[in-house]
Write a structure and sequence with these properties.
With 418 residues, the chain is of the alpha/beta class. It is built from twelve helices and 13 strands. Helix 9 (256-269) runs parallel beside helix 10 (296-315). The relative contact order is 0.23.
Length: 418
């Protein structure tokens, strides 16, 4: 095993509430609320977390290529990215690693010390099943999927956060992901600007009054869910998502992923107490025709990089209090299959970007790509993903209950956070 740490850092839920909404019992947007103005960043000892999950298993060896590993080209005939300076070659990060050329928009963050790549990372409890691997990582379990846990690591962190608003966490999928399940004040909201009851606006207020009265007469649990939902509708209705204009000339890709990041920028700039937003990007399960240079992988990498770069620009001074953590359930096999694709593997990489990240480098304990150094044909995992998350939670996100967040595991801090 070859330790490599390049370049020192550059200075620099309620389920009943969901049913309540889907059942048509959500209240209407408050029609007379003033719009929130987007002010400059306010200082805070606790950063906001934007969690990005790349569903499908992103190939880390294409995104951040160990181009100087002597076994890369022979291990990946027809798949390995060329080195820096060559046609379609990777972008120089250091003397060992290079960034995918379609990720070029991230170079500014890397060079300013606000982007860190943690390579050969993941969950050491091996599984090549998407469901099991995602379930394990999102629950924060130590061994078998879930470890009897019914909640997620993000939710357990948010559950004891002080100073958070009525909406302390938000997922942009149609339902809560496992990571977000288990805390009050956390909702799945795909389009926060559309979070209102359908129907004629002329009767919205009357219907809200009627529903409010009904829920106040219900059990304490339902009454609380009703109050929180109305408050969330009011909160989001006070933010002018529709007319939001990104700052600094930022331009988000015209994709759902780009739109969700733009909404997230508007939400975080409004300073309404949201501590975490999760945004998923699907499509990384490349069993056939990986397309590292001009195909599907390249297109997804471009969308990811353009979106993250736009978000960084858009947040401006407020970016100092925001950290983006990008993760995936596992990496891909080192060797390609017969379809110029890659099957499910193990070791992957995490991407951290933000004001609290000790970036400008690739952090790894590189295991090597020689056949004898692989883990059953896969890139070996030498950094547990919980080491990275645990350090960020404690040092940047105000976590005070780390043993509850990752039961049965004590994270080893790796120096990922400032």
């Amino acid at each position: 095993m070859n330790p490599i740490e390049t370049h020192p850092p550059i200075a620099a839920n309620r389920p009943d509430r969901r049913a309540f909404l889907l059942g048509g019992a959500a209240a209407a947007t408050a029609l007379t609320l003033p719009r929130v103005t987007f002010a400059a960043a306010t200082s805070s000892a606790v950063d906001s977390l934007v969690l990005v999950f790349l569903r499908g298993g992103m190939d880390a060896l294409s995104f951040c290529s160990p181009y100087a590993d002597p076994n890369l080209q022979s291990a990946r005939p027809g798949i390995a990215m060329p080195g820096p300076g060559l046609p379609n070659g990777v972008l120089y990060l250091d003397s060992f690693f290079g960034l995918h050329p379609q990720a070029a928009p991230l170079m500014a963050a890397y060079q300013s010390g606000q982007l860190l790549i943690v390579h050969a990372s993941g969950s050491p409890a091996s599984s090549r099943s998407h469901f099991e691997a995602q379930n394990r990582m999102e629950s924060g379990a130590s061994s078998q999927p879930g470890l009897g846990l019914s909640t997620g690591w993000v939710a357990r962190h948010l559950a004891v956060q002080s100073g958070a608003g009525v909406l302390r966490g938000m997922g942009t999928s149609d339902t809560l992901t496992r990571a977000l399940t288990g805390s009050t004040g956390v909702l799945p909201i795909r389009q926060p600007g559309q979070f209102r009851m359908p129907g004629a606006t002329g009767t919205a207020y009357a219907r809200r009054v009627a529903l409010d009265g009904m829920y106040q007469q219900a059990s304490a649990e339902l009454a609380s869910a009703g109050r929180d939902t109305f408050a969330t509708i009011d909160l989001l209705g006070s933010i002018d998502f529709q007319n939001y204009a990104p700052s600094g000339g930022a331009s988000y890709p015209a994709t759902p992923f780009g739109a969700q990041f733009q909404d997230t920028a508007a939400l975080l700039k409004a300073n309404v107490g949201v501590r975490c937003v999760e945004i998923d990007l699907h499509g990384w399960d490349h069993h056939t025709n990986l397309g590292a240079i001009g195909g599907s992988f390249a297109a997804l990498t471009s969308e990811l990089a353009q979106t993250l770069a736009a978000f960084r620009t858009d947040m401006g001074g407020a970016f100092g209090g925001v950290d983006v953590v990008v993760m995936t359930e596992f990496g891909r096999r080192v060797a390609p299959n017969g379809n110029l694709g890659l099957d499910h593997g193990r070791g992957g990489c995490m991407i951290l970007m933000g004001g609290g990240v000790a970036g400008g480098r690739v952090l790894t304990q590189w295991p090597g790509l020689a056949p004898s150094q692989l883990h059953d044909g896969d890139l070996a995992i030498t950094i547990d993903y919980r080491d990275v998350l645990g350090e960020m939670l404690v040092r940047r996100f105000g976590c005070t209950n780390l043993p509850d967040v990752f039961p049965g595991y004590t994270p080893q801090f790796r120096g990922v956070a400032l």
